[in-house]
Every structure is written in structure tokens, then in C-alpha cells.
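BUG-726 | component: ligand-complex export | severity: low

The export step for magnesium ion jobs runs without errors, but we want the raw record kept on the ticket for reference. Input record follows.
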Amino acid sequence: MTGPALFLLLAGLGAIAWVSARARALRLQTVARETGRRDAVHSLPGYHGWYVALWTLAPAVLFLAVWANIAPGLVTQAVLADPAAQSLPMDDFSRSAILGEARSIATGAQAGAFNPLAQGLVEPYRAAISKYGVAGAVLAIVLAFAGGAYAFTRVRPDFRARTRVERLVMATLLIASLLAIVTTVGIVASLLWESFRFFSMVNPLDFLFGTKWSPQSAAMGYGNEDAFGAVPLFWGTIFIGAIIAMVVAIPLGLMSAIYLTQYAKPVVRKWMKPTLEMLAGVPTVVYGYFAALTIAPALRDFAVMIGIHGASSESALAAGLVMGVMIIPFVSSMADDSIAAVPQSMRDGSLAMGATTSETIRKVLIPAALPGVVGGVLLAVSRAIGETMIVVMAAGLAANLTLNPFASVTTVTTQIVQLLTGDQEFDSAKTLAAFALGLVLFVVTLLLNIVALRVVKKYREAYE
Amino acid sequence: MTEPTNPLAIANPKMSARDVKVFYGAKQAIKGVSIDVDMDNVTAFIGPSGCGKSTFLRTLNRMNDTVASARVEGTITLDGEDIYSPSMDVVQLRARVGMVFQKPNPFPKSIYENIAYGPRIHGLAHAKADLDVVVEKSLRRAGLWDEVKDRLHDSGTALSGGQQQRLCIGRAIAVEPEVILMDEPCSALDPIATAKIEELIHELRGRYAIVIVTHNMQQAARVSQRTAFFHLGDLVEYGVTGDIFTNPTQERTKDYITGRYG
Ligand SMILES: Nc1ncnc2c1ncn2[C@@H]1O[C@H](COP(=O)(O)OP(=O)(O)O)[C@@H](O)[C@H]1O
Ligand SMILES: [Mg+2]
């Protein structure tokens, strides 16, 4: 039996279980209500329906999930037990290659065999696959009927189906959230582990404070010293994400927030705010090629024109400017929220003293909103330093330690991409360096987020 | 419906309103109020909640300008000068007519900076020494100096509610206003803090024209010499406080005073 057919069949069984259990509960409860006391009836009939449907489906689906994992092993065993498998070579590698080929042909993923031995195993494979497939399907259906029947017999007017369904819903939600946490923990653990391996090859101090970055030379066998000094990367990241981008994003974001909260008429605000926030929805790759193809060449030409040396067609400035634009909606919506959270009475108090609107904004609203704005800026910085696409496309690969914004610099994220694309062995310091960089980025971003959220929260409390 | 009584005839009113109407969009909140406020007396506005006391008070320093839907008709003068005329600078007006709000609203700055805020924006004091003098004088007048003189640089928001409200009064005083408008200044305070504010109002009387909105009739009786009773956007009766409370001429005033509504 094929997968989709089985799925449809189970779904159908579930639906039948729901409908019939609900009908039965309704009927029993109608009777009970006429004769019994008020507590003779517990859950709404729909809950009975769900209860029985879940009992029909859950065991079967769980069984299929387990079966999908053990069936291939059983199939292989069956094939190996076949007389045709006696002639297989003994060494594991060629053996599994032949088995793999036979399986591909049997499932139709491959047309013909390269290895004549594989051809002989196709039929046993086919037979075993279909045998275990049918067995799995039959077992699943039996389970569905058994579960459904068990649950169906429990349908009584006063059966607490609602409690059980609610409990199951809660358990499902809990598992879903645990899944996200477990995944994150797993990612962090792997990051830590690979970084640990890297630091067993390269001194952490050399990595954190070294100023020369040339992982290629390490890969070519010149040794690991002096090849993994990440300071130029850190500097490039800070230069682009925390300096140039913020020089653009903070004033523009703040000013647009002030305009939107203090000056804009409600109608203007109503269309302008979403429009501004749309900037955040532009895919970063679009910003990336805008930076690389439009801004960067223009900046280089400009730099050459005014006679700046070392101007490159990939520059910190191009990447930083575009990143700044990308971050504007971030800063402005955080600032907007913070300013809006300053109580109206503060504003009235200042205006009633004879302060003008702009004095009120400068001397009362912004100072009062400052913690929130700072929190927003920190979040924006953490976003900017983790941003990859724009810098990959526009900032360049040269690990320069320079203050010249027209020069090419590289960033942590760019180098991670660089280290992990193309050929790689998983044991070399060059590849593992990507994990160490990732770890640094993760730690910094995490700290920024924690600090930012604390600042914002403190500030919120101040006005509640 | 009885005709509103004539406003008290005052020879030289500090502020004077004639046939003032206020609308919020299409809704009329004040239906033609005429009243004179003088320098030597504290004037109380009383009336049930929603009758337009705050709205009318806010017309006196044009705080209604900050409400987009609000529209004011009629004339209001300060020392005979129309405050709604185009030649009137609203910044100057508000320096002359200060305001204290229902809920204490000190700025999230130090006590010192709260007081210095007004003098700074109006350029009344530049040197630090001048500013220090203004701050001390204002805090003394607001009856707060002794309590805060050792912690002028602590945050104003860390004070108790009553102290915050006196800080707000001090803040208003610091720009040397001629009129101080108070909108239910004690409604968020406990009885002891309320008593201190009332005492302060007594002390400030004569130096500033004071208009206080209150829904507490005992308070109006205690602090004011003139009382205006508002009802549903009308000024029903205006007179000497003692007369209003003991001998109201209008039926509606009588009902309110005796607690029939409000
Ligand atoms: N900003 C506003 N927009 C619309 N209507 C308002 C506004 N402020 C007050 N009002 C209305 O005006 C009337 C008078 O309100 P208010 O002056 O606050 O009364 P009071 O201070 O006497 O309680 C009320 O009906 C109130 O709903
Ligand atoms: Mg009011």
C-alpha cells in the first residue's frame, strides 16, 4: 500500500471516529440529561469526537514514525538472507555500495545497474520492501481500529473527554516549545564543541587579539600561527555594523520617529509608518546587490575624483550605508514606541510651561525616551553585526585593519561564508575557524540582546 | 431652565471670558461662558464630573490648542489683551498663565532641573548662580525647600505624590506667572498632602491669580473666595464662595450643593 493511500485511509478513519463518537456522545447525553442529574453530563460531544479521533490516529501515526525508522534495517536483513546475497563481496564498503544500488533500482530511483551483482538483488529488495510496507500498513490500521475501539467504548455521558483532550493539547504545545529550545541548545552545543576543537589547534589569544587573518595560508600548510588573528574581522564588523550603519540609522530613525509621533497628522502617520516598516521587509539580498552594483561603484568613483587613495570597488562605506538604511525601520519603530510610551502628561506639563513643541521634544520627550531608544539601538546593532548578505556582496574579502571607509574590509559573517563554501575538510583549522567566529558572534549578539531588553524593560517599568 | 446669573462685576479683572464656547469636533463641551477672574481672590470651579471644568480651565492658557479636535469661540482676555488673537504668542501666554495638573507630572529629571526647566526655556536666568537663586526661591514658595534642599539632584519622580505636586507648583512659580491654573491638584493625594497644598494655596493668594478646579466642595469652601458652578457646559452660578454654599440662587446649584447629584 502506498504512503498517500495509507494516509488518506487513516484520515478517513479519524474522521469516521470523530463523527461517530460525537453522535454517540450526543445521543447518550440527551438520554442522560432527561433522566439524570446535572453532573450526569460532562464534556461537549465534540470533545468526545476529538478524544476518539485522537485515539484512532495517534497510535497509528506514532507506530508509522517508528516503523519508518526500523523498516529499512529489516528490509536489508531480509535481502541479505536471500540466496542471491551469498555472492556479495565481504568488505563492507563495496557491499553497501551494491546494496545501495539495488535499493535505488528497486524503488525506481535509478534505471539500470552498473554492477551485475546489484541486478540480482533487485527482486529480493522489491519483495522485501513490499512485504514490510504491507506489514507496516496493516499494523497501523489494526492499531487505528484498536485505539478507536478502546476509546469508543469509553464514551459515556459523564466521561471527562474535555479534560483529556485539553491535556493532550497542552502536551503538544509543550513539546513544540521544547523542540525549539532543544534545537537551540543543540546548535549552541555544536558551536561550542567545534570551537573547542579549533582552540585546541589555535591559541584563543592569537585568535582574539591577532591582527593577521589569512586562513588560506594555514590551509596551504604554512602552519596555524599568525593565520587566524580575527581582529581585522572584528574591526570590519564594528566599522560597518556598529559605526557606519548607525551613523545613518540613528539620526534618520530617530527623526522619522519624532516626526511620526509628534508632528504627523493621524492620516499621514497611518500610511507612512507601515511604508517605513516595509523597508524591513525587503530581502537583504536585494539590499546587497543595490550596495554592490549601485552604491559601491559610485562611492569608488567619488573617492577617486576627490583623490582618496586606496579606494576600492568594495568598500566599508557602501556596505555600511546600505545596512544603515536597512536598519532605519528598526530604530525608528523602537524609538517610536519609546516616545509614545512617555505619558501625555509629561508633554502637557512642558507645553504648559510655555515650551515649544521642539523644546518639549528635545528636553523632555527624548531624555525620557532615551533608555528605550538606546535599547532599540543596541538591538539594531546586534542585528547589523549579524547581517550577512549585504557585507558578502559589498564589503569584500580583504582583511584590512583600516580607518578608510572607502577601503575594502571584511566582516565576521563574510568570513564564515567564505570559510564554509567550496571544498573543505571538517578537521582543518580553516573550517573550524568558522565555528569559532560563529561563537564570538553569538556571544556578542546574545549579550547585546540581554542588555537591550533589560534597558527597555526597566524603562517600561518606570512608566507603569 | 433658569438663566445663568451674571458674572460678578469686577472692576479690573486679571482674566475675562466672554461667551466662550468650546467644541470637540461636533460636540459642544462649553456653551457660552462669561466670567471674570481677579488677582486678589482664589477662584474655584466646581461641578459634576464631565461638566466642562477642565475644558474651560484649559482655554485660559490655550492648552486646548494641543487637542486637535478642539475649537474655541468667544473672547478671553488677559489684562485686557485677547489671548486668542494672532498677535498673542502662546509661549509667552503660558509663561504668564501657568498650570498644575490633576496627576503630579514632574519631568524625569532632578528636582533642581525640574524647577530650572521653565527659567531656562524662557531665558529668565543664565548663570548658574542666578538659576540657584530662582530654584531656591521657587522651592521655598512651593513649601518644599526644607524637605528637598539636601537632595536637589535626586530625581523628581522619586518624591512622594504630595511632594511631586508641590514640585509641579514650584515649577510653575519659577517662571513668575501672573495666573496659576490648577486642575484638581489634590485628587491624587492623601488628606495630609492635600492639606499642605491647600495651605500653600492660601500663601500664594494675592501674589498670583489662582483658579482651581475641584470636585470636592469642602475644598472649594476652604481655599476659595469665589466659586463658579458649572453644569453640562453652562456656568450656572458664580459668586462669593460663602454665598454659593449657604445661599445659592439657582435651583441646580442648590441641588448640587445638597448632594442631589454629582
Ligand atoms: N480631548 C477630548 N476630546 C473629546 N471630548 C472631550 C475631550 N476632553 C473632554 N471631552 C469632553 O468634554 C466634556 C467636558 O470634559 P471635561 O472638561 O474633562 O470635564 P470635567 O473636567 O468637568 O470633568 C466631557 O463630556 C468630555 O467627554
Ligand atoms: Mg477634569
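Assignee comment: Attached the raw record above. The pocket of adenosine-5'-diphosphate (ligand 1) is lined by residues B 24, 29, 47, 49-55, 67, 69 (CB under 6 Å).
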